[in-house]
């Protein structure tokens, strides 16, 4: 076996799957076929589940589980000790091995150690040569915006070096614990190989490092970065003060200082003193002052463009920001201020039960104020009351975003509940689809995520996606969706009451047709002849039609046994009324799966939708966990599925069960309670 790839897997839930698949997806490579060792910890259950899932599919993958506190260096050392390949490659969980890299590495290792083809004997056969001990790989990096840049040669990293395992073991090379744990072994290996003439290079870009905004040492300013100074002190001691160490040290320390995400401004003077660089501190202070002055100038210019009323409200808002926070006030919002709905509504209801001393106020737009239930406290977005509430509330809960660009204060707690499981690409994953995202302000998306303290997750799939597409330092709450609590324990009496209120005849089979919107189409235009469908199905069926809320309060649907329920305020009640769901790409399918009732995917424009927006789940694959039940791609197929009974066949039931297991693992009727107890100060029972 040529290559062992070691991947520590901790706090990389949104990136690990891509990292592992970049190795297993290298394709047939004969003797160069790599083995993959994922090193995990029970403290990161999602990463452990992804690693084990990958190992179940691919025998080349092994999973090591470490006990005790996590340390990346210890994880790499454990992976190296278990490796069987001739060479070691250490990737992080946010790195990827680019396509064709293993084949390029294999070809390069068949060359001589210095890069030339090996010498030949008189018969033209290559003479045996010592293999390189260290092969330096071409590498680059990509940031959260998708911008690819060359790799930084000043920062030593294990990810872009290939180490011969016998060489690694002979010199007892090991990663040190704590930050900058690869400084000592990587530099020592390079120096030793350079002295022996067994250092080689490969110009081809093999490894791509994913630069993350949050969750890594490199993106967390603080005194942890002083460890780089100690790492070079240890390196100097272990190499007998090799003169080459000082040049590497100076380059690395400059790179750390130039990265504003590392050493915090308040720690810079101490860092300079600890590094023995006091004379350079003044120039850094000057550069920081220039940056700050430019930022203030931009802020002043933006303020000058505000309208008079907005400027007055902002002045008043800034005054309110000096008021103490109200520990008894929570502000709620849903669907861009459309009223009381979704997860925030369920959290609010449970909060009124468990923490009645905390007053909840809803944000609503003026055009949707008629949707507010009688007696429900609310403020109109952009009003004086709105800005006062946003300035003084201790708790903020929303499934989208609050309007107006408020300033989140220290001491405020912001819960982002989201409003669906992602089927289509979200957040920064939309960047490759510029035709449909021309009006999306991705910088604003990232700035919004920076305000969150908590991000609610409906299932492990959502946790992976949110972590990657909204890169920030919030805490993930794998609690399930509070809005689905009602689905987990609803009685037949409640279902009968809802059906009666909707005017559904007793004994009717009810189908809920709820397609999502298309980014490339205006208005609700169902790709389905609703009247024909009801005629084909006969008098025993009733069709509920719900258009996406982007299209207003009516689907414009009418006919015999067709009920337009677009304006119905609570979609969960429609779920309870329906015997089956017909949808295309709506996230409603993930919620409806809680009921364990049939789901029919009617996807007449699947290829166009995937090409235009991108999807995370292949509804047409037929794989358990991907396909929720019966599938139809034409109107005739849909009629056939319903009339022929395929929608409730054993095959459809099995697919639905796997889909439910994957996307509804937390739904037990107590999600709202878990959220309230985590966010609010609830007195013990």
From TrEMBL:
Glycosyltransferase 2-like domain location = 4-113
Report the protein name in the record.
Answer: CDP-glycerol:glycerophosphate glycerophosphotransferase
Q: Where is this region: Disordered?
A: 110-132
Q: What Pfam families does this protein map onto?
A: Glycos_transf_2 (PF00535), Glyphos_transf (PF04464)
Top-level taxon of origin = Bacteria
Establish whether keyword DNA damage is in the entry.
no
Which UniProt key words apply to this protein?
Cell membrane, Membrane, Teichoic acid biosynthesis, Transferase
């Amino acid at each position: 076996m040529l290559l062992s790839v070691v991947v520590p897997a901790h706090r990389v839930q949104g990136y690990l799957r891509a990292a592992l698949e970049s190795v297993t997806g290298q394709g047939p490579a004969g003797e160069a076929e790599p083995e993959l060792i994922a090193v995990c910890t029970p403290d990161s259950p999602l990463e452990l589940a992804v690693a084990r899932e990958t190992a179940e599919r691919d025998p080349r993958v092994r999973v090591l589980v470490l006990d005790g506190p996590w340390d990346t260096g210890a994880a790499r050392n454990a992976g190296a000790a278990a490796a069987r390949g001739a060479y070691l490659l250490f990737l992080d969980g946010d790195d990827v091995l680019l396509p064709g890299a293993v084949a390029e590495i294999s070809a390069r290792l068949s060359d001589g150690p210095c890069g030339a083809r090996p010498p030949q004997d008189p018969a033209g056969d290559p003479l045996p040569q010592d293999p390189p001990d260290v092969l330096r790989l071409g590498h680059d990096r990509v940031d959260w915006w998708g911008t690819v840049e060359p790799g930084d040669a000043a920062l030593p990293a294990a990810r872009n070096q290939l180490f011969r395992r016998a060489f690694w073991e002979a010199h007892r090379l090991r990663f040190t614990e704590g930050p900058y744990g690869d400084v000592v072994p990587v530099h020592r290996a390079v120096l030793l190989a350079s002295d022996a003439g067994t250092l080689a290079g490969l110009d081809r870009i093999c490894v791509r490092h994913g630069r993350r905004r949050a969750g890594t040492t490199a993106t967390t300013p603080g005194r942890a970065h002083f460890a780089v100074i100690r790492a070079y002190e240890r390196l100097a001691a272990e190499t007998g003060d090799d003169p080459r160490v000082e040049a590497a040290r100076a380059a690395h320390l400059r790179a750390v200082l130039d990265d504003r995400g590392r050493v915090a401004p308040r720690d810079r003077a101490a860092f300079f003193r600890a590094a023995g660089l006091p004379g350079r501190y003044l120039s850094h202070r000057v550069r920081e002052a220039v940056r700050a002055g430019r930022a203030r100038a931009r802020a002043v210019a933006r303020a000058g463009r505000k309208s008079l009323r907005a400027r007055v409200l902002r002045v008043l808002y800034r005054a309110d920001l000096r008021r103490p926070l109200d520990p008894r006030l929570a502000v709620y919002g849903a669907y861009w201020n459309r009223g009381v709905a979704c997860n925030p509504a369920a959290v609010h209801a449970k909060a009124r039960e468990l923490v009645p001393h905390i007053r909840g106020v809803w944000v609503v737009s003026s055009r949707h104020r008629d949707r507010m239930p009688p007696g429900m406290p609310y403020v109109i977005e952009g009003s004086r009351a709105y800005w006062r509430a946003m300035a003084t509330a201790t708790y903020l809960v929303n499934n989208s975003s609050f309007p107006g660009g408020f300033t989140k204060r220290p001491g405020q707690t912001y819960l982002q509940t989201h409003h669906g499981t992602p089927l289509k690409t979200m957040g920064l994953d939309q960047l490759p689809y510029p035709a449909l995202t021309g009006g999306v302000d991705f910088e604003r998306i990232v700035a919004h995520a920076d305000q969150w303290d908590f991000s609610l997750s409906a299932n492990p799939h959502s946790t992976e996606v949110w972590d990657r597409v909204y890169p920030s330092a919030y805490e993930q709450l794998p609690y399930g969706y509070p809005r689905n609590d009602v689905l987990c324990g609803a009685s037949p009496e409640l279902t009968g009451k809802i059906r009666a209120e909707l005017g559904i005849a007793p004994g009717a089979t009810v189908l809920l047709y709820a397609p999502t919107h298309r980014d490339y189409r205006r208005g609700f235009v169902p790709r389905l002849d609703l009247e024909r469908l009801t005629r084909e199905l006969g008098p025993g069926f009733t069709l509920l039609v719900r258009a996406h809320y982007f299209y207003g309060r009516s689907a414009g649907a009418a006919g015999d046994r067709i009920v337009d329920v677009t304006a119905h305020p609570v979609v969960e009640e429609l779920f309870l009324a329906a015997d089956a769901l017909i949808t295309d790409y709506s996230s409603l399918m993930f919620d409806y799966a809680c009921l364990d009732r049939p789901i029919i995917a009617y996807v007449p424009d699947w290829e166009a939708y995937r090409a235009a927006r991108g999807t995370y789940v292949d509804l047409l694959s037929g794989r358990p966990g991907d396909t929720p039940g019966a599938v139809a791609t034409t109107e005739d197929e849909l009629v056939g599925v319903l009339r022929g009974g395929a929608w409730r066949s054993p095959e459809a039931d099995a697919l639905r069960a796997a889909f439910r297991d994957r996307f509804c693992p937390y739904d037990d009727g107590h999600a709202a309670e878990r959220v309230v107890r985590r966010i609010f100060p609830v007195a013990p029972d």
